[in-house]
Amino acid sequence: LTEAKTAIAEAQAETVTESTDKLFGTQKGKNLIVIQLEAFQNFPINLSLNNTEVTPVLNNLAKDGYYFPHIFQQIGQGNTSDAEFMSNTSIYPTGTIAMSTGYGDRDIPSLPKLLEKQGYEADTFHVNDVTFWDRIKLYPALGFTHFFDKPFYKNDNFNTLGASDEELYRVGLEKITAISKQNKPFYAQFITLSSHHPFKIPVENQNKALRDSLTRSQLGDYLLAINYTDYALGVFIDGLKKAGLWENTVLVVYGDHFGLQPKENTNTAEAIYKAIGVKYHPDISRFNIPLFIHAPNLQKGEVINQVGGQMDIMPTISNLLGISLKEENFVHFGQDLMNIKKNVFGMRYYLPTGSFFNDDIMFVPGKGFADGKATSLTTLEPVTDFSMYKDDYDYVLNQMKLSDDYVNMLPKR
Ligand code: GP9
């Protein structure tokens, strides 16, 4: 393991590592709330239909903190649970098995473990049964102190999988308020579910102005569900303010993966453009998720255009909380988005292995690099000469191999 750690550090040093320490420790000792939003793509952010914002709460959060519009999903077979895995570990999912199922018997270095060393309690909240996606293995492997699953929530029959996001946050707020009364900092992760496919939410929870502007289609149902997810988050934020927790908490919000299903939407890109005027690329826009970071003493309203992936969330949080991953000798395949020089990261399972994003393009290989396809992240148009990105392709393949070797070396619990 020690040799593997050295090899990984050496491989990363030349390409991505940046030694600046912008914002390091500015949030030291603060509570941390990380909210992973179900099936939440980036395109509804700042979108208005019928003079109604689809995501007013998140739009306000962007005005009051940092908004990262160029973040991409990196999940493998474990979908939602792989996103939870990455935001707590900064390790690549192998793509061949859900990380919870394949590696839930390991002792996995993680954000909860780093924070517990600093006196935090780390809890996670989700309204579905904890056996789903083998979270019953994943949560102990990641070292969460407690998990709160289905039996902890009143079933308001929001959808077939469980209670509403409002109920998720109601219970969560109660628990984190109790922790903070013991004068302990907390890390709470919330995995929302109200915007799960097929995106049919109860009529009483639908925003009428939005509904009237949308035709009955998967896109229409999706935007109504997204709007509810955003609304419930707003109720939670109000609750945090009333409980006196807002001023002492870092809030991180991001999407777990795409929502709109290509199979169920013929000509998705054209249909979306026609219905809501959004330019939509079938891969880039589909895999593009939003990320927000809010803390009371951070700069307001900054849009950070740095390209990133889900593995970057954990190093970015660690920097703000004053945890040096270098000093901790903590292996991470993502980077701190506040201090990065250049980003390049891979994606597999939903795209062929060897696909990657860097600061300029999305690349999808053919049989190899030379017959691959590159698309500009700015114009969403093809890039014909991409030969200068060959090093990035080799780098990503090597990083994924190192990551797989590393995770396979982790000791059993
Ligand atoms: C269920 C939820 C859904 O608990 O996490 O997972 P998904 O189907 O989106 O991967």
Give the SSE layout.
Layout: H1 2-15, E1 31-37, E2 48-49, E3 52-53, H2 56-63, E4 66-72, H3 79-89, H4 99-103, H5 111-117, E5 121-125, H6 135-142, E6 146-148, H7 165-181, E7 186-191, H8 208-213, H9 218-242, E8 249-255, H10 268-276, H11 284-287, E9 288-294, E10 302-303, E11 308-309, H12 313-320, E12 344-347, E13 355-358, E14 361-364, E15 373-376, E16 382-383, H13 390-409
Parallel strand pairs: 1-7, 1-8, 4-10, 4-11, 5-6, 5-7
Antiparallel strand pairs: 2-3, 4-9, 8-9, 12-13, 13-14, 14-15, 15-16
Helix pairs in contact: 1-13, 7-9
(2R)-2,3-dihydroxypropyl phosphate is lined by residues 79-80, 128, 132-133, 161, 193, 196.
Characterization of the model:
With 413 residues, this protein is an alpha/beta fold. It contains 13 helices and 16 strands. The protein has helices spanning 2-15, 56-63, 79-89, 99-103, 111-117, 135-142, 165-181, 208-213, 218-242, 268-276, 284-287, 313-320, 390-409; strands at 31-37, 48-49, 52-53, 66-72, 121-125, 146-148, 186-191, 249-255, 288-294, 302-303, 308-309, 344-347, 355-358, 361-364, 373-376, 382-383. Strands 1, 4, 5, 6, 7, 8, 9, 10 and 11 form a 9-stranded mixed beta sheet that branches. The protein has a 5-stranded antiparallel beta sheet with strand order 12-13-14-15-16, with helices on one face. The protein has a two-stranded antiparallel sheet with strand order 2-3. The longest helix has 25 residues, at 218-242. Bound molecules: (2R)-2,3-dihydroxypropyl phosphate (GP9).
